[in-house]
Amino acid sequence: MKKKSNLPRLLGYAGKRKILTYLSWVFAGLSALIALVPFWYIWRILKEVIEVSPNFSEARNITGYGWSAVLWAVAAVLVYITGLMCSHLAAFRIATNMRIKMTDHISKLPTGEIEKIGSGKLRRTITETAGAAETYLAHQLPDKSKAIFTVIGMLLLLFIFDWRLGLLSLVPVFVGFLCMTRMTGKEMQRKMTEYQNALADMSNEAVEYVRGIPVVKTFGQTVFSFKKFKRTIDNYEKWTIAYTNDLGGPMCFYTLAVNGVFAFLILGAFWLGGGNVTPDFLLNMLFYIIITPVITLTMTKLMFMSENQMVVADALARIDGVLDLKPLSEPQNRQHPQDNSIVLKNAAFSYDGRKNAVDNISLEIKSGEKAAFVGPSGGGKSTLASLIARFFDVNSGEIKIGGVNIKNIAKEELMNTVSFVFQNSKLIKASIFDNVRLGNPNATDEEVTAALKAAQCADIIEKFPDGINTVIGSKGVYLSGGEAQRIAIARAFLKNTPIIILDEATAFADPDNEVKVQAAMNELARNKTVIMIAHRLSTVRNVDRIFVIEDGKIREKGTFDELKNSRGLFSKMWADYQSSAEWKVAKEV
Q: Do the beta carbons of residue 503 and residue 531 sit within 8 Å?
């Protein structure tokens, strides 16, 4: 089904304020026609001055004409402001509804899909693209209406006084229009999309780079260590230089043409006047010299409006890119898990539709068991855990919790069944109390306090004057990786789900924090089904079962003692881990 054009789609978000958009066009067009009236009074002033010359004292009506011009100019401004008020009221409602619709849709998307897009791109889509639409509706559309009516009124004025001079005035307009089409055609629309892509990629990678600054500072690296960020900057630079070079020639000719109206009029004066300049011809000539700058201004406005139309078209395409992403399907016949067991049968998943990140995996974790996923980086451990939490849907096979396919479990119930403590837990700019209560918005103050205590967070609260009400991220209040992880674990405590997934939860903890995080995790895991994703093999000694995952497949499975002595992949990993743990800096002799 063919999509509507951009304007009807934008107005679809306006609700009852759509009428205000139409009124803004009417008022803007009316103001354009009113704004031309002062030029007629200026012509009357010039006419009277020329007629009485050199006896200028006989010019009796100049003051009246002058005040009339001022009043009409003020009226034009007031009518235009009225139009802008209408357009802004409608534009604000449209931008608000667009953001609400996008954020509501994003909240229904799979968590994995959101991670794949990137927070930088999503932020830019929600804020800047809706902002571009708002600017277009609030300013560009009324200005477009004003420009169209200005052109209509100008054409009438240009041919009323002297049609020959009117035609001469339109020659540079025609040349400028040809240059404008070169700068705003389909090829430029494609390049505008490339520009927005380059900007979005750079914005997304910039967010990731800023998040990684602690790593850069710790290891003394430069921006070049973040190759993707550097590549997006280079790509943006390459595009902007090429784009500027492409537009350089047409823009020069356009500027020369629209600002060269005077030259055409002066040449026309010599040609049409034939050396005999009559008072009437001089009067008309002066009028055209005064009014033709309006042509230049109108043409320039139209050019920038064409560019803004391309920006809006690209913004809507990006909004569609988000809205076209399909939320996870909701079950028609909802089923409820019978216990906390996890079963995968021939589960396979691919991010790009080509190579499987998880390849035909089958496994079983019994209710109340502690299991660990270990293996080389990039082997598919986190992907497998994400599939169990239904951040993505498997491409083939099935995943069951409590004997029920997770696709048949309502989203809310699944979220209340599985908790996920990420490797790099995210806290919002809010109080410690509010960050924890995200796990259960209906929790009492006592329950939040108990969750913080169970997560070993007492030292975090005590070091801040405002305690549990300390706002993270404000006035220099920041937490270390290990402290943030303990707050996230407190959130999981409060949620109190029967299944816990811990994605390398001690990765960013210093030794002191690691002990507390480990203690918090042990308390959290009590009487629950637990999946640990671990690189530090010392943390998986006491789990019931270990799955060794490499290249999206389960290579080995068993207990710690079984795998340690198997001479397989885990045995080698354990030997390497022990060697690195025992490594010490040699004393200088």
A: no
Among 99, 254, 242, smallest CA distance to 174 is for: 254
Confidence of residue 583 (pLDDT cuts 50, 70, 90): low
Provide the 10 A C-beta neighbour count for residue 135. Answer: 17
Contacts of 271 (CB under 8 A, 6+ apart): none
Spatial separation of the C-alpha atoms in residues 486 and 463, rounded to whole Å: 15
CB contact set of 253 (below 8 Å; sequence gap of 6+):
175, 179
- Statement: residue 71 has pLDDT above 60: yes
Q: Are 33 and 149 in contact (CB under 8 A)?
A: yes
Which pLDDT value is given to residue 305?
66
Distance CA 394, CA 499 (A): 19
The interaxial angle of helices 141-161 and 163-184, nearest 10 deg, is: 150
Match 């299944």 to its residue by tokens. Answer: 499
Q: Which residues pair with 431 in a beta bridge?
A: 471
Residue type, 445: D
Q: Where are the beta strands (DSSP E) in 298-440?
A: 342-349, 358-365, 370-374, 396-401, 404-405, 418-421
pLDDT for 188: 66
CA distance 507 to 445: 30
DSSP 431: B
Query: Residue 401 pairs with which residues in a beta bridge?
Result: 342, 404
Single pTM value for the model: 0.62
- pLDDT for the residue numbered 51: 76
Distance (Å, whole) CA 49 – CA 488: 82
Length of the chain: 589
Residue 219 pLDDT: 45
**pLDDT surpasses 70 at 303:** no
Q: Please report where in the chains the tokens 């040449």 appear, as a residue.
A: 267
CA–CA distance, 397 with 89 (Å, rounded to integer): 51
- Indicate if the pLDDT at residue 169 is higher than 80: no
| DSSP per residue, 103-120 | HHHHHHS-HHHHHHH-HH
Collect all residues with Cβ–Cβ distance below 8 Å to 475 and sequence separation of at least 6: none
CA–CA separation, 501 and 389 (whole Å)? 8
Chain centre to alpha carbon of residue 135: 16
Question: Residue 117: which of 130, 131, 102, 132 has the closest Cα?
Answer: 102
Closest by Cα among 296, 88, 326, 123 to 206: 123
The rounded distance, in Å, linking the Cα atoms of 344 and 363 is: 5
CA 445/CA 296 separation, integer angstroms? 66
**444-452, Cβ contacts within 8 angstroms, sequence gap of 24 or more:** 447/494, 448/490, 448/494, 450/493, 451/490, 451/491, 451/493, 451/494, 452/487, 452/490
Quickly state the pLDDT bin for 316 (edges 50, 70, 90): confident
Judge contact between 31 and 80, C-beta under 8 A.
Answer: yes
Handedness of CA 272, 274, 279, 285 (dihedral sign): positive
